[in-house]
Amino acid sequence: MPTDESLAPAVADEFTGGSSSRPGPWTTLGRAVQTSVVEFFAWFGELAIFCARLARVAFVPPWEGRELLRQMDAIGSKSLPLVALAGAATGVVLSFQTRETLVRFGAKSMLPAVIIFSILKESGPIITGLIVSGRVGAGIGAELGSMKVTEQIDALEASAVDPYKYLVATRVLACIAMLPLLTLAADFCGILMGWISNTLTDPISLQLFLSTGTKGVEFSDFLPPTLKTAMYGLIIGIVSCFQGMRTQGGTEGVGKSTTSAVVLSSLFLILADVVLVRLIQVFFP
After folding, report:
1. Are the CB atoms for 78 and 180 separated by under 8 Å?
2. What is the count of structural domains for the chain?
3. Which domain holds residue 5?
4. Least C-beta-crowded within 10 Å: which of 2, 26, 144, 235?
5. d(CA 77, CA 123)
6. Separation between Cα atoms, residue 235 and residue 133, nearest integer Å
7. Both 50 and 163 in a single domain?
8. pLDDT (tens digit per residue) in 169-217
9. With a cut of 70, which residues of the chain have pLDDT below it?
């Protein structure tokens, strides 16, 4: 008759995979989950330290004005064609999609207002943010990641140049400054192409289109959605620079940093949009 002591090794082997020297599947899964949770909170902890160090040097002289202007050109001017094209495509799609629905319900006269309100309040800002996060986020992550693995950042520190001030602060401030301006360009192109696509089907003058579409538009409908893209720029700049500055592992690490910079900045941008839209509804009813 087996005793409890003789059954204990068998029960232990059942959960350890049949060998006391080799961890079982449940043990391996538990360790993997534990490691993932620790890395998750460690990432946010490192991000908080990164933001604190950035805030400490961003607004303290000496100023890196020339580098800031160069980054504003790289982020703003070179993103303008892509943002304008995306805004124009959004206006055309809105015109085509909403026209059929409004005609079905006998509200065709509301088409200009639907196009203008949709672009100004949500479509223009979020499209601009996602386009810039894809282009600029990848560029910043790859550039800083390459500088990190080739020890150029260490060389800057050895030359008494603060990399957080010269590399990070200039890119973050440029993103904050350029996103609202790019949003204005996307809004303009979207409204213009919305009118063109509408007038090809049902001819209407630009003056009548704008006067009809903006009849109920107030300043609070335009300014908060445009300025909230500055927060998008802050997210894109911080996340992309953070991922680039913590790159490890050579060229493979640069690729991972670039991918993670785009994915995380886009994800946080969408989550921030949900919060900001609700805040705008509360403070600008």
Report:
1. no
2. 2
3. 1-58
4. 2
5. 21
6. 9
7. no
8. 999 999 999 999 999 999 999 999 999 998 888 888 888 888 888 887 7
9. 1-24
